[in-house]
Write a structure and sequence with these properties.
alpha+beta
């Protein structure tokens, strides 16, 4: 019987984003958003995004130190007034998962999953009860990625432009 050899170690590492790295992180996020939404003009993120109280950001770097991925969460801010389902979030400690992006050449190697694991662990440490995110059908594989991590679709908007898919994952049991 052939022996199975252990999987090779990943060629990247996930770490919290320190405030001192905003000059590197913000351009990476801007690049990521341009890749995901090439036909849209988006308001650029500012340094306040990374310093939002009660937020957390993680980055993935290659073993050579290159930035290859990012993810974060911020307190949910009820910025979608037209969504009736969000009212329930006032009863929970709710965060919004934002800015998950992995460079195309690093996809399929577990980087996004490792970034998610870091966010999930930090949310648990902070006693977060509910996680919200939204994605779009034109972001290939995004909805399935999140469903595999326990998120459920709460609304699919048919607005003709974004087709926003709103998803949540409760961490506090059935509510």
């Amino acid at each position: 019987m052939p022996s199975s050899s252990p999987a090779p170690p990943p060629q990247w590492i996930v770490t919290p984003v320190p405030p001192s790295s905003q000059d590197e992180i913000l351009p990476f996020i801007a690049f990521a958003r341009k890749c995901m939404f090439p036909n849209h003009t988006l308001t650029p993120d500012t340094s306040s995004l990374l310093s939002t109280p009660d937020s957390a950001f993680f980055c993935a770097r290659s073993t050579q130190g290159s930035l290859i991925g990012i993810i974060g969460f911020i307190p949910y801010d009820f910025r979608f007034p037209h969504l009736s389902f969000q009212e329930k979030y006032k009863s929970f400690s709710t965060v919004e998962i934002i800015r998950l992006f992995v460079l195309p050449e690093w996809r399929g190697q577990g980087v996004a999953g490792a970034l998610w694991d870091a966010v999930e662990e930090e949310a648990g440490r902070r006693k977060v009860e509910c996680m919200y995110l939204h994605t779009h059908p034109f972001l290939e594989g995004a909805e399935g990625f999140w469903e595999k991590r326990g998120f459920e679709v709460v609304l699919k908007e048919e607005d003709g432009v974004w087709g926003t898919v709103h998803m949540e994952r409760r961490l506090c049991g059935d509510q």
